[in-house]
């Protein structure tokens, strides 16, 4: 039997205090920003299926094109999955009503409901106001995520579950993860109210199947995840004083090679309900001849299995897994 390659990931907030019971965040998040593209800037570099996404225009863009229409359903949104390994997939266009000439929000389409299967990866978006194109988002600037996996089952003893990931045009791997199964608590900081999970030490692995379940008969191949050196952390939904910091980058976590494996490992602590992990890879992974095409044809999400899972609410000075070991994934 072909040996799968392991990509071990944990989720951590870089502002966590070490002692249990101490403030988990040193300060309220304040990095809400925008991600520019060809014409217009995004509120997030990624989009979950069915999640609101915002596009903002500069004053010069509004002056040159007239900006978004504020009439009901006055804007037409065109979404195209720019498949890394296959032909582009254009979804049926839909209408949206703008907040102002410079701001438009709409729910990013859930491809499973539109075309009958999940799609993920680089996405192009254009917004037209009549015959005028008023926003142009390039595939290199936006990554559509698959539906996230909730790893809360770790606490019930589950050791393995299926999940999905995707890749962007730069060869980075994106993995949406939720921890709602851990339960939620309100942050004990009156000036910074937010819902968190109880702080928990985690050890989580991700295995890429040697042969994807949808592609029977494919030759086994192993992506070289061992070259990855860090994981970048982004917030999913997090409401603070009525502001959603969806898409905010938190920082990075160093990673290490899995012993006798083709991947990386992280042991860490987490208190956030909704996270998105980005493992920066190599640009050649996203080229048409890449072995990743075996797993991800025509914007198919990367089929993975989350395993080596353990969690422990007793957090010590050094991040450990539920067995008290310092990142000893096997």
If you had to describe this structure to a student in words, what would you say it looks like?
It is a single chain. The chain has 330 residues and is mostly beta strands. The protein has two domains: 5-29 and 144-312, no CATH class; 35-143, Immunoglobulin-like (Sandwich), CATH 2.60.40. It is built from two helices and 27 strands. The chain starts with a strand and ends in an 18-residue tail after the last strand.
TL;DR?
The protein is mainly β and 330 residues long. The chain has helices at 59-65, 111-114; strands at residues 5-8, 35-36, 41-42, 46-47, 52-56, 75-81, 89-90, 94-96, 103-107, 121-129, 132-137, 143-144, 149-150, 160-167, 173-178, 185-186, 195-196, 200-208, 230-235, 239-240, 243-244, 249-254, 256-257, 264-265, 267-270, 274-279, 302-312. The strands form six sheets. Strands 1, 13, 14, 15, 18, 19, 22, 25, 26 and 27 form a ten-stranded mixed sheet that branches. Strands 4, 6, 7, 8, 10, 11 and 12 form a seven-stranded mixed sheet that branches. A four-stranded antiparallel sheet has the order 2-3-5-9, with no helix packed on it.
Task: Give the SSE map.
Layout: E1 5-8, E2 35-36, E3 41-42, E4 46-47, E5 52-56, H1 59-65, E6 75-81, E7 89-90, E8 94-96, E9 103-107, H2 111-114, E10 121-129, E11 132-137, E12 143-144, E13 149-150, E14 160-167, E15 173-178, E16 185-186, E17 195-196, E18 200-208, E19 230-235, E20 239-240, E21 243-244, E22 249-254, E23 256-257, E24 264-265, E25 267-270, E26 274-279, E27 302-312
Parallel strand pairs: 4-12, 13-15
Antiparallel strand pairs: 1-18, 2-3, 3-5, 5-9, 6-7, 6-8, 6-10, 10-11, 10-12, 14-15, 14-27, 15-26, 16-17, 18-25, 18-27, 19-22, 19-26, 20-21, 23-24
């Amino acid at each position: 039997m072909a040996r799968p390659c392991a990509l071990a990931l944990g989720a951590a907030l870089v502002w966590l205090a070490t002692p249990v019971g101490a403030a988990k965040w040193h300060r309220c998040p304040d990095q809400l920003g925008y991600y520019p593209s060809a014409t217009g800037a995004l509120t997030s570099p990624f989009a979950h299926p069915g999640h609101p996404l915002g596009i903002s225009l500069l004053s010069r863009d509004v002056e040159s094109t007239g900006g978004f229409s504020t009439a009901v359903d006055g804007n037409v949104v065109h979404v195209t999955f720019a498949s890394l390994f296959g032909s582009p997939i254009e979804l049926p266009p839909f209408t949206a009503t703008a907040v102002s000439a410079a701001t438009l929000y709409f729910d990013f389409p859930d491809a499973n409901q539109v075309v009958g299967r999940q799609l993920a990866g680089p996405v192009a978006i254009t917004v037209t106001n009549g015959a005028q194109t008023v926003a142009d988002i390039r595939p290199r600037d936006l990554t559509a995520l698959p539906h996230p996996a909730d790893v809360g089952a770790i606490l019930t003893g589950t050791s393995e579950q299926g999940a999905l990931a995707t890749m962007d045009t730069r060869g980075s791997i994106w993995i949406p993860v939720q921890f709602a199964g851990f339960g939620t608590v309100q942050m004990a900081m009156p000036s910074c109210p937010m819902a968190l999970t109880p702080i928990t030490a985690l050890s989580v692995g991700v295995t890429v199947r040697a042969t994807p379940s949808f592609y029977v008969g494919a030759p086994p191949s192993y992506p070289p995840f061992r070259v990855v050196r860090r994981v970048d952390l982004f917030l999913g939904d997090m409401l603070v004083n009525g502001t959603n910091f969806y898409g905010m980058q938190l920082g990075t976590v160093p990673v290490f090679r899995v012993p006798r494996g083709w991947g990386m490992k992280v042991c860490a602590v987490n208190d956030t309900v909704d996270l998105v992990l980005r493992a920066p890879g190599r640009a050649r992974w996203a080229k048409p001849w890449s072995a990743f095409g075996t797993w991800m044809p025509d914007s198919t999400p990367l089929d993975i299995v989350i395993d080596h899972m353990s969690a422990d609410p007793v957090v010590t000075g050094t991040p450990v897994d539920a067995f008290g070991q310092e990142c000893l994934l096997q």
